[in-house]
Amino acid sequence: MKTDEILVDARDLVKTYNSGLRAVDGITFQVRRGEAFGVLGANGAGKSSTMRMVACTSPVSGGTLRVLGGDPDRDGAAVRARLGVVPQEDSVDTDLTVRENLLIYGRYFGMRWADITRRTTELLEFARLTERADEQVSNLSGGMRRRLTIARALINDPAIVLLDEPTTGLDPQARHLLWERLFQLKQDGVTLLLTTHYMDEAEQLCDRLIIMDGGKIIAEGTPADLIARYSTREVLELRFPAAEREVAAEKLQGLTDRVDVFADRVLLYTANGEETLAAVHERKVTPLTALVRRSTLEDVFLTLTGRTLVD
């Protein structure tokens, strides 16, 4: 259950490196108990540096940060004991069984054996791995390993779970199953702080989010609020033969306030896609295909951060 209690309180947070890079440049945000909070941004935006500071594994360079009421620099060990961390790359031990991975990890937190075994049984069920409990991890699929990584991060019943790109590399079926598990955690009152490159994932999971660019926060709010603020209600996607696209795009300029031209399609941002499509036909423009869809968080993200590839 969400409350107004603030579990992560970052104010004018800064992270600089010896190279002189200012990866995080004075950001302020709060994460409340029981909510799923997203940190979005292109590569190099500062989201990973932010997550490492919250995880108490990278020192703060400036500003203030409180996690679970503690100062990461002074109380790092105590704070880390109450966190669950899901790294981008799975780090489960492939030489052990599924069950052994959970049992051994619980010992790292000094938990009583009875509590570890009880928690292991609960988490195997949660991750839908009960039937695979005594198999070697090396035999698991990528989706199963990811679910095991998340289950392992929950062994100490953490107050906050930090997830770095939780579904990267998974097929659609595995992604959706993982979304179900994360949604269940949120329903159970677990606080989630996650980064993701998947905008549909952010829309599905996040109650609130920030979008970072160049180390700064450039937008903050709920997914619905951000879509309403930075995009239109609908988007009309038109596809044309390559030889006709530029001419068609020229005829469509001014039809809506924003027209984006890509190598394979033309996007028109509009309040009413069907009316806009009728106006397209009135201009004697005939696309190969036409699709009216609602605006998404991806439209917002690309509007705010641009469409240039960032390595």
> Which strand-content bin applies to the residues?
25-35%
General form? globular
C-alpha termini separation: 38 Å
Q: Helix and strand succession?
A: EEEHEHEHHHEHEHEEHEHEEHEH
**Total separate domains:** 2
User: Spatial order of the strands in the main sheet?
Assistant: 5-6-7-3-8-9
Identify the CATH class of the largest domain: Alpha Beta
CATH topology of the largest domain: Rossmann fold
Name the CATH superfamily classification of the largest domain: P-loop containing nucleotide triphosphate hydrolases
What profile does the largest beta sheet have?
Answer: 6 strands, mixed
Mean pLDDT value: 93
Helix content: 25-40%
Number of separate strands:
13
GO molecular function: ATP binding; ATP hydrolysis activity
Protein name: ABC transporter ATP-binding protein
Organism: Dactylosporangium aurantiacum
Domain ABC transporter: 8-239
Report what the structure shows:
Keywords: Antibiotic resistance, ATP-binding, Cell membrane, Membrane, Nucleotide-binding, Translocase, Transport. One of its GO terms (cellular component) is plasma membrane. It is a peripheral membrane protein. GO terms for molecular function: ATP binding; ATP hydrolysis activity. Its main location: membrane. It is a single chain. The chain is α/β, with parallel strands linked by helices. It has two domains: 33-59 and 71-228, Rossmann fold (3-Layer(aba) Sandwich), CATH 3.40.50; 232-294, Alpha-Beta Plaits (2-Layer Sandwich). Helices cover 37% and strands 26% of the residues. It contains eleven helices and 13 strands. The chain has helices at 47-54, 72-80, 98-108, 113-126, 142-153, 172-187, 199-205, 223-230, 242-252, 273-282, 297-305, and strands at 6-16, 22-32, 36-41, 62-67, 83-86, 160-164, 191-195, 208-213, 216-221, 234-239, 258-261, 266-270, 289-294. It has a six-stranded mixed β-sheet with strand order 5-6-7-3-8-9, sandwiched between helices. The protein has a four-stranded antiparallel β-sheet with strand order 11-12-10-13, with helices on one face. A hairpin with a 2-residue loop joins strand 8 (208-213) and strand 9 (216-221). The radius of gyration is 23 Å and the shape is globular. The two termini are 38 Å apart. The mean pLDDT is 93.
